[in-house]
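dumping this here before i forget
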Amino acid sequence: MKPILPSPFSYGYRARARLFPSTDGKGAKVGFYQEGSKRVVAFKRCPVLTEDINRVIAILDKTNTAFGALAKKYIEYIRAQNDLFGNTFLTLSFTKSIREELRGKIRVLSTHIDARVKLSKKSVQFFGENELICFYKNPDLAPQGLFCKPGQFFQANLEQNKALVELVVSLVKEEKGETVSEFFCGSGNFSIPLARTGLEIKGFDLDRQAIKKARENALKNQCKKNTQFFRRDLLSKNLAYDSKFKAGTVVMDPPRTGARSLSAIMGLIAPKTIIYVSCDPMTLKRDVETLKKQGFKLTALHPLDMFPQTYHIETVAVLRKR
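structure:
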């Protein structure tokens, strides 16, 4: 076990959050669900959220006429996101289709937030100059930046994600292999930086839009020739071996539920090294036990404080073929 890598910021680091409307006699507010219930605990400011997201929350709190009319009957949840450039993206998800009489209230709210509006059937997005979120940038590993659409997954702690990417790149480079398969690749958080070092990369993910953005990010960062991205359901109970999975090194960053099905066929994929990025120690433990039975040995654990002020921990596990 390596020492825990601390986060650059203990507060004001969280660049994405799902909020819920809470209405009372004093107007509309937003909050989080109380643990284990659907009761909304309203707040005016959250110390772990970025200042830009807190600024938008304060604006919603002050615009009770515009926001309250929407929140009371129509809003299911509010998704707030920030990017590396300080841009704020706000998406309101509606319980019903957005009717014409709501559009005026939405336009009024957009003037308060000072944002452009993009409407779909059951949601409205507020954004600034750019409709895309820049979640990673590095002069060498991603000089043009990595981008995703609002709503797609990216690490909530953008500054600590830089350390995470650089750690994974350094661990893969130590293996001195030439081919890497990244599972749960998303929009290319690890794939593009790894490809920029000259490695042949294959990325796999279920999210069609994320795969599209990964390809665009590869083109933008001049590594299209040594990257391929494929859509696969890696969480399927019926996941079967695919010859495209084959690689000397595997990088995997599954959701909190882990990678049970993928771990079960890792012996067929037969990499020399597995770099497993996990946000849940319990599912990591379960999958490591499965991998051990297939001839892999846990050789290192690198913990990162990705979520300061919480009990959650991000862990990078290194496993090698015995």
